[in-house]
């Protein structure tokens, strides 16, 4: 998995990971030649998915899944809870989307990239980590797509991870897939009068997470 963190007002970082996996002996077709794909049986779960506040769509040509969220954020430091200001050392939230990909028989797919974007307002001494992973057919992702953010900053962030050795699904016409998005932040080394907030999705309605897919005939 090749990790490229693209920062807006944040220092850019490039990290390379080599992840071993079993790869079926076939060559993926071009994205334009893939099958027609539909999404069904969508279920969102977790505190990061507010009721009615998350959605998933298939991108053009079946080349990936686009996820959007409303109010997916974590706050640390001085926060308002139950109408009163209080100190919060750390916070984390997760959103899991389970779905089924329906496509013509004789095709197999692999997750080939994980990308997310959002906004980070972090005080000095505060750290945050957005992460994206996936599972299909009981096989977890070789590694999560992650980004490590450090304060002080108040800027959009984005990262894109490419899977160098993708795991291909079994040959079939339908396959369950689950994606897991997580946000965490830690303010234990920040000033006691500071506050920080990290969101998944820079603006309401924007695509916040992209899961890239490649297809091959089998």
Oligomer: single chain
The average pLDDT value, as a whole number, equals 82
* Number of helices in the DSSP assignment: 0
Q: Low-confidence segments, ≥5 residues, pLDDT <50?
A: 1-31
Distance between the termini: 24 Å
Tally of domains: 1
Outline the biggest β-sheet. Answer: 16 strands, antiparallel
What does this structure look like?
The structure is a single chain. The protein has strands spanning 2-7, 13-16, 38-45, 54-58, 64-69, 73-81, 84-88, 90-122, 127-136, 139-140, 145-146, 149-150, 153-162, 172-186, 195-200, 209-217. It is an all-beta fold. It has one domain (2-15, 48-217). A hairpin with a 5-residue loop joins strand 1 and strand 2. It starts with a strand and ends with a strand. Mean pLDDT is 82; it is low at 1-31. InterPro entries: DUF4360 (IPR025649).
Q: How do you describe this structure in short?
A:
This protein is mainly β. The protein has strands at residues 2-7, 13-16, 38-45, 54-58, 64-69, 73-81, 84-88, 90-122, 127-136, 139-140, 145-146, 149-150, 153-162, 172-186, 195-200, 209-217.
């Amino acid at each position: 998995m090749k990790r490229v963190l693209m920062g807006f007002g944040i220092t850019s970082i490039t990290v390379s990971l080599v992840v071993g996996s079993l790869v079926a002996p076939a060559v993926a077709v071009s994205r334009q030649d893939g099958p027609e794909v539909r999404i069904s049986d969508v279920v969102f779960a977790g505190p990061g998915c507010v009721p009615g506040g998350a959605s998933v769509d298939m991108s053009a040509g079946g080349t990936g899944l686009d996820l959007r969220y409303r109010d997916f954020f974590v706050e640390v430091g001085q926060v308002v809870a139950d109408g009163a200001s209080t100190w919060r050392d750390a916070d984390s939230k997760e959103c899991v989307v389970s779905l089924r990909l329906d496509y013509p028989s004789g095709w197999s797919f692999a997750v080939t990239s994980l990308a997310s974007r959002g906004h980070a307002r972090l005080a000095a001494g505060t750290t945050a980590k957005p992460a994206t992973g996936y599972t299909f057919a009981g096989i977890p992702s070789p590694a999560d797509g992650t980004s490590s953010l450090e304060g002080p900053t108040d800027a959009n962030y984005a990262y894109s991870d490419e899977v160098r050795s993708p795991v291909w699904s079994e040959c079939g016409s339908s396959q369950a897939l689950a994606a897991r998005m997580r946000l965490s932040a830690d303010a234990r080394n920040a000033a006691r009068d500071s506050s920080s907030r990290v969101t998944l999705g820079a603006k309401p309605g924007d695509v916040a997470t992209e899961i890239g897919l490649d297809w091959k005939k089998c």
